[in-house]
Structures are given as C-alpha cells and as structure tokens.
Design goal:
This protein is mostly helical. About 85% of the residues lie in helices and about 0% in strands. It is elongated.
C-alpha cells in the first residue's frame, strides 16, 4: 500500500514536471521567434510598420492560456473546484445507491 502511494506521487510529480517543461519550451520559443521577427521587421523597414506585433499578440494569447493551465490560474474551474466537484458527485452517487 505504501509503495503504491509513493508510486502515485512519483507519477503525478513527473506529469507536473512534463507540463512545466512544455510551458517553458513554449515560452522560450516565443521569446526567440518574436525576437527574430522583430529583428527582421527592423532590418526591412526600421519599424515604420511593426507587423511582428501581430504575431506576438496572437502567440501571446495562446501563451497566456498555456500559463493559466500550467500554473492553475483559472479562478473558476481550477484544481480545487475540480476536486470539490468530484467529491460532490461521488457523494451524490453514494446516496442514490443506498436507496436503490
């Protein structure tokens, strides 16, 4: 029993590390690509029209959602809400089975 608890903790920790790695890889890619696009934009028209901001804005929105999911920043449907809802549904299920 003790080993399975440790194994479950290890698996959850590994999944969490994988989530963090994916987010930081996405962030690093964002920084590098947007920087390269800004440089290209500067070299071609010296920022007379900053078109690279469109790419930065679009990808940035995706990055914000990725960060919210990775760091559980969703105030409405976060992990605590999910756990409460699971317990509530399990309790409802137990009550309905008792009276059948």
């Amino acid at each position: 029993m003790e080993d399975s608890k440790k194994e479950n903790k290890y698996i959850r920790a590994k999944e969490r590390v994988d989530e963090l790695k994916k987010f930081y890889a996405n962030l690093w890619s964002y920084i590098m690509v947007i920087s390269a696009l800004a440089l290209i934009n500067y070299l071609t028209n010296e920022f007379r029209y900053m078109w690279f901001l469109w790419a930065a804005f679009g990808w940035g929105i995706g990055l914000i959602f990725h960060a919210a999911a990775t760091f559980n920043l969703n105030p409405f449907f976060g992990k605590s809400w999910e756990e409460r809802k699971i317990k509530e549904l399990m309790n409802e299920d137990e009550k309905t089975k008792k009276w059948r």
